[in-house]
Every structure is written in C-alpha cells, then in structure tokens.
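Need residues for this backbone.
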C-alpha cells in the first residue's frame, strides 16, 4: 500500500513540476514578447526621430545654401564677381564720310556692375624713349633687375588718359576721348574693386595701308582674359600686328627717379 502512495505522490510531483515549468515558460515568453514589442516600438520611435532630424538637417542645409547664395550674390554685386573692365576701339566717321576718328569704349561683359574703376592710359612709345635700362645703376637698383628706370615726370608725360567710372553689368560707355586715326602702342592699367587689369593696344598700318589693331587684356598674373582683333586683321597681316603688340609689356615695371 505504501509503495503505491509513494508512486502516486511521485507522479503528482512530476505533473506539478511540469505544469510549473510550462507556466514559467509561458510567462517568460509573454515577457519576452512584451519586451520585443516595447523594443520594436522604441526602435520605430528612434527611426522616426532620426527621419525628423534628417529632414531638419536637409532644411538647415537648404537654408544655409540659400544664405550662401545670397551672401555670394551680395559679395559679387559689391565687388563685380568675375567680371572685369576693358577698353575696346570704335571707328567714328564724320558727316562727309571722308574723315575717321577713333574712340575708346569702356566695357563690362560681366553679370554684375563694376564700381570704382580707376584707369590710366599710357603711350608706350613715349615710355620706351624715356625709360632707362637697369644696368650699372648701383646696388640700390640691382634689387629689381626686371624693372626699368624712368623719371617720374617722363612717366607722367606719357599719360594719355585718366578715368574714374562705375559701370553697370552688360554695358559699355564711350570715353570722352577721340582723335584722328594714327599708329600707336598704348598700355592701359584698370583698377576696380575686384582687382587690377592690364591691357595693351596696338594700331598700325599694314602693307596695303589699312589700319589694323589688336587688343589684349590680362589679369594681375598676366593671364590672357580677352583678345580683340580689328576687322581688317587677316592671315596676311596678323604677324605684323602681333609683332607690334608684343613690343608692349603685359605689365609695366618701373623704378621712379627724380
């Protein structure tokens, strides 16, 4: 009888243990599911928050880009951006069509206005006659071997024109200077808010007695920015005008003396 009782008790214990373990398993799975749901919810919120942050960052970047564009536009409007002033030539006929005059035109091809243009036109033929080679002038001048020496009064005597102008974008303006057509070699220095431009202009007669001209415009590093050939320049006389203009330095380098 007693062994039977123990057998029953043992069976009950096994069943009870199994039921307990099953309940613990169900409870653990429920807790795990709850944690997973909570974790999924938290992850979804984090993803949503990250998306919101990303969207805000894009908005901030767009605003910053607009501000940068505005700032760049304002800066370009003040300085002239990448635009530059330059001088071109125009042929003016008299009423009887027999007399010709030359006029100089100040140009701005850029997208922004150019302010505080200050220019000086020099007759290079006069400068060439007056300048002194920097040789044997003493230690003081040996520091500047690439410079020519000239008296300041001689330099001033070569000044053909001085101008001070503002120029709207995409515009041109006739300079109040005109004279009968004659051969010349001119050097022009133009300063504006965005830098210094140098220009050389040569006008000569070719072998057929036609006047031909060439204009070359350079930045402060002597990079060619613009080249304008007169309408009568052709393959037969191009070397003549190029030889003439190459006599004019791209930039003038002088040491002034009294």
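Answer:
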């Amino acid at each position: 009888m007693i062994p039977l009782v123990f057998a029953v008790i043992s069976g009950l214990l096994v069943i009870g243990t199994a039921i307990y373990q099953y309940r613990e398993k169900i409870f653990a799975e429920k807790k795990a599911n709850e944690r997973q749901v909570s974790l999924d919810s938290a992850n979804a919120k984090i993803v949503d928050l990250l998306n919101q942050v990303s969207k805000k960052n894009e908005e901030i970047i767009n605003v910053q880009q607009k501000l940068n564009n505005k700032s760049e536009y304002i800066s370009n409007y003040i300085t002239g951006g990448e635009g530059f002033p330059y001088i071109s030539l125009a042929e003016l006929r008299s009423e009887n069509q027999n007399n010709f005059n030359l006029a100089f035109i100040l140009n701005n091809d850029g997208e922004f206005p150019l302010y505080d243009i200050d220019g000086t036109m020099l007759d290079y033929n006069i400068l060439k006659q007056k300048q002194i080679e920097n040789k044997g002038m003493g230690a003081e001048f040996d520091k500047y071997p690439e410079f020519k020496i000239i008296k300041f009064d001689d330099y001033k005597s070569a000044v053909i024109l001085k101008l001070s102008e503002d120029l709207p974008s995409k515009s041109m303006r006739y300079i109040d200077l005109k004279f009968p057509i004659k051969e010349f070699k001119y050097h022009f220095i133009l300063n504006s808010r965005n830098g210094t431009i140098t220009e050389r202009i040569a006008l000569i007669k070719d072998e057929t007695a036609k006047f031909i001209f060439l204009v070359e415009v350079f930045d402060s590093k002597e990079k060619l920015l613009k080249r304008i050939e007169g309408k009568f320049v052709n393959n037969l006389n191009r070397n003549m005008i190029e030889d003439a203009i190459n006599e004019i330095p791209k930039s003038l380098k002088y040491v002034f003396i009294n």
